[in-house]
Specification:
- The chain is mainly α and 446 residues long.
- It has a single domain, classed as Na+/H+ antiporter like fold, CATH 1.20.1530.
- It is 73% helix and 1% strand.
- α8 packs antiparallel against α18 and α9 packs parallel to α19.
- The longest helix has 37 residues.
- The radius of gyration is 22 Å and the shape is globular.
Length: 446
């Protein structure tokens, strides 16, 4: 019977409760309370930050911080832990990652690399290399000074490696969404930045995976080399073998039906998830798989507009606030105490901004970009956002980042994100494309 609590036997012999059982209803109710609070807080905070010239993504991150131990937990700790129990963490992690895969797919669709960059990848490669290597080196060299002032003892070498990675990360999802919300994804500067950030982040995640194994004593070239080769093979498979028939299938569907039918959407979603699963197994995280498929079919603008109209609204309204807000629940600003902590924080900000922003600016000038464009690229590459949080959370889980330095790195990620929007808006004033807003779902009429 539908109302009965039926236990289905799993392969290992364990029982799984029915999806309509009492336990499932309890989890559902808890999840609903969390979603209501997160979505309400997100809408309220984003409405406020928009008046201050920020984009929605900044408001969503800030909403998460306010719902976490920094404010709600400090004022009402019992209520915060009741509302957000540890047991529901995996559910939100899964929802957030699915939303992130869709966001990376959308970013791949929106940024018109071929139109602005043609066949030349040199500017992207140079900017990516310099803005990855220089911050990593400066972070590694400066890390012993910070290590000597840690509140908790951690291994120096492991701390150096993760501190260096934290300096070199660029947040593609946050940066991409800022550029889309500002109506700037059609520009050459956006294409350069996202292309460089994509290469840098793929390299960064490979380095991060290798560092994790190295710290745990499990590193081997037998882990790294097959994954690099596998990633290269997969990219060749997508862009050389799969891309043309996929574009043909999409174009044929649009020709026969005059648009994208609802029955066609599941096939794109399946392809997206398969790609995400492949890149996850290759050690560069699932979100890169979403980006790869988006880039592969981004030049079919009819599909892009239909996708934005039919699918993107639910991603924009539901999945993304969960990712940006719920991740901010881990941030505890109160962990930084005294003038010593403040000075250390300011020095971390200095190392991060000088190495990343300065390195990207110098690299952009080296490949022939004007001063204004180069400065914009520097500001964009300096945006760290939640990709930074993912990286430093791995370091914290491995016991290499004490609570105070972890919180400082979180603040560094937030500051770099908050300053990005007004600076990018000012530096790229007049280049906006408002004909089809890219940060919000397209209107029903397309």
């Amino acid at each position: 019977m539908l109302g009965s609590t039926v236990a289905a036997q799993l392969p290992g012999g364990a029982a799984a409760e029915s999806a309509v059982g009492a336990g499932a209803e309890e989890i559902t109710l808890q999840l609903l309370y969390q979603l209501i609070v997160i979505l309400l807080a997100t809408r309220l905070v984003t409405a406020i930050v928009r008046r201050l010239g920020q984009t929605d993504v900044s408001g969503e991150i800030l909403a998460g911080v306010l719902l976490g131990p920094s404010l709600l937990g400090a004022l009402f700790p019992g209520f915060m832990h009741t509302l957000f129990p540890v047991s529901t963490g995996p559910i939100f992690t899964g929802l957030a990652q699915v939303g992130l895969i869709f966001l990376m797919f959308q970013i791949g669709l929106e940024f018109e690399f071929q139109r602005h960059l043609g066949a030349s990848l040199r500017p992207i490669v140079v900017i990516s290399a310099v803005s990855l290597v220089l911050p990593f080196v400066m972070g590694y060299v400066s890390a012993p000074w910070f290590h000597a002032r840690l509140s908790e003892p951690v291994p120096l070498f492991g701390f150096q490696l993760f501190f260096a990675v934290a300096m070199s990360i660029t947040a593609i999802p946050v940066l991409g969404r800022i550029l889309m919300e500002l109506g700037l994804s059609h520009t050459r500067t956006a294409a350069l930045t996202i292309g460089a950030a994509a290469i840098g982040d793929v390299s960064g995640w490979l380095v991060l995976g290798a560092i994790s194994l190295l710290v745990k004593g499990a590193f081997s070239w037998g882990w790294v080399v097959p994954r690099v080769i596998g990633l290269a093979i997969y990219l060749a498979l997508v862009f050389v073998v799969i891309r043309k028939p996929l574009r043909h299938a999409i174009a044929d569907h649009f020709t026969r039906h005059g648009g994208m039918r609802p029955t066609f959407v599941p096939y794109i979603v399946i392809l997206l998830f398969v790609s995400a699963a492949v890149t996850s197994n290759l050690g560069v995280f699932a979100i890169i798989g979403g980006f790869v498929i988006g880039v592969a079919i981004h030049d079919d603008r009819r599909f892009v507009e239909e996708w934005k109209r039919r699918v993107w609204p639910i991603v924009w309204v539901f999945f993304l606030p969960i990712f940006f807000a719920y991740t901010g629940l881990r941030t505890d600003i109160a962990a930084i105490q005294g003038w010593t902590g403040l000075v250390t924080l300011l020095l971390i900000l200095a190392v991060a901004f000088v190495s990343k922003l300065g390195g990207a600016y110098a690299a952009a000038r080296l490949v022939g970009e004007g001063r204004r464009s180069a400065l914009t690229i520097g500001v964009c590459m300096n945006t760290r956002g939640m990709m930074e949080l993912i990286a430093i959370n791995i370091g914290k889980d491995l016991g290499l980042l004490p609570t105070d330095v972890f919180s400082m790195l979180v603040i560094m990620a937030l500051v770099s994100t908050f300053i990005a929007t007004p600076l990018i808006r000012r530096l790229m004033n007049g280049q906006e494309n408002r004909a089809t807003p890219l940060g919000e779902p397209a209107a029903a009429g397309g």
